[in-house]
Amino acid sequence: MTSSSPVHIVGGGLAGSEAAWQLASAGVRVVLHEMRGVRGTEAHQTDGLAELVCSNSFRSDDAANNAVGLLHEEMRRAGSLIMRAADKHKLPAGGALAVDRVGFSDEVQTTLLAHPLVELRREEIAGLPPAEWGSTIIATGPLTSAALAEAIVKATGAQSLAFFDAIAPIVHHDSIDQSVVWKQSRYDKGESADYYNCPLDKAQYEAFVAGLLAGEKTEFKEWEQNTPYFDGCLPIEVMAARGPDTLRFGPMKPVGLRDPRTGRRPWAVVQLRQDNALGTLWNIVGFQTKLKHAEQTRLFRTIPGLQNAEFARLGGLHRNTFLNSPHLLDGSLRLGAVPRLRFAGQITGCEGYVESAAVGLMAGRFAAAEANGGSPSPPPGTTAMGALLGHITGGANAATFQPMNVNFGLFPPLEGTLRGKDRKQALAARALADIDRWLAPAKLAAE
């Protein structure tokens, strides 16, 4: 059965292309709107659907030990076009899934255009999609056009969109050394266990500042050059360059804190704040940075209590348009202020090619369920897709929300004391069993 009214999709990147495929596969007509071919972007080189702008790697393909590899496998089981094209155009890359970017994009575009339920329109949507379109998915990515971004702000409020990532590193809770850190808020305001505190003496602080100033930094991309820093999201190395004590009077200030082991105030303190509802991820407060990732890992592990830190995300600062999704989107990715609109891909606050496509896959399935007279059914939170969806739509703290890759820290914890590889493999096995149960009704209906 084919749905009579089409679902419109704005944006032909990985998320929009995957959403279109999921809808068409469910018998729903799709009109896919892509402005490239009429108007380019600062980053894209072609007008091809699902163009890979930066790397050609989809990262690890290890479904048993790596959260992104697990996401690959879940998407394959859900009939993902993006994963099918990636597998067909795979290049040698060890345990990673790297693709021939031209062959991959051509495969996605050719497959979509060959489907009788998919129509591609080359045009810019300079504002909110019109009400007469009905169900619409916006998948315009991190370089959403200014006109559409302005329209989203008008519909949802001035604080709904961010245009600059100020990304602080995030640490897995079980890698924090509990024998070194202690929990306390400054002057014991609020809950006394709001923050973990990592104490530094004078020598440790001075060495840390020197490391920040000497560390190798990434450069802004060409289209980011004129995007100014905001005082509220200055990189820590920029603050450190303003004077040796700047950080001690900024994010590393020790006032109102006492180390229970010594009874004294440390020279400086690095604070970590809970970053997800499960308490498995902790954000290093105020540590957005342009240091290269290897430098961050090396330097941040010199902080007492973080010497064995495992990072779910490292810091960064770059131009990016994304929604404050935990505040704005419901559990099926609909915009609360305008429910006929769904969002998908990087504009929702996920990070990475595969994550973007996975959110597109879910948005397409949710929209297809509605178009076919049913109700959206989100994947279980124990799956990679469900964990990513849960983080975007409510698991993350809306006040500090920043884009994130999928990682095992987003998954509900297992009972027991499994650690390391055993824990990851148990989480992956649970996820695959649960994704199969979620997909089973749709597979039976298709047979």
What does this structure look like?
Helix content is 32%, strand content 18%. With 447 residues, it is of the alpha+beta class. It folds into 2 domains: 3-160 and 324-446, FAD/NAD(P)-binding domain, CATH 3.50.50; 170-318, Elongation Factor Tu (Ef-tu), domain 3. The strands form 4 sheets. A 6-stranded mixed β-sheet has the order 6-2-1-7-17-16. A hairpin with a 4-residue loop joins β4 and β5 (96-99). α2 (67-77) runs parallel beside α10 (353-371) and α2 (67-77) runs parallel beside α12 (420-446). The longest helix is centred in the C-terminal third of the chain and has 27 residues, at 420-446. It is globular and about 70 Å long.
Number of helices: 12
Using the coordinates shown, work out and report the CATH topology of the largest domain.
FAD/NAD(P)-binding domain
Tell me what portion of residues adopts beta-strand conformation: 15-25%
The secondary structure category is alpha+beta
Q: Regarding CATH, which class of the largest domain?
A: Alpha Beta
Molecular shape: globular
- The strand line-up of the biggest sheet is 6-2-1-7-17-16
Poorly predicted regions are 226-231
Query: How many angstroms separate the termini?
Result: 13 Å
CATH homology superfamily of the largest domain? FAD/NAD(P)-binding domain
Order of helices and strands: EHEEHHEEHEEHEEEEHHEEHEEHEEHHH
CATH architectural label of the largest domain: 3-Layer(bba) Sandwich
Number of separate structural domains: 2
Number of strands: 17
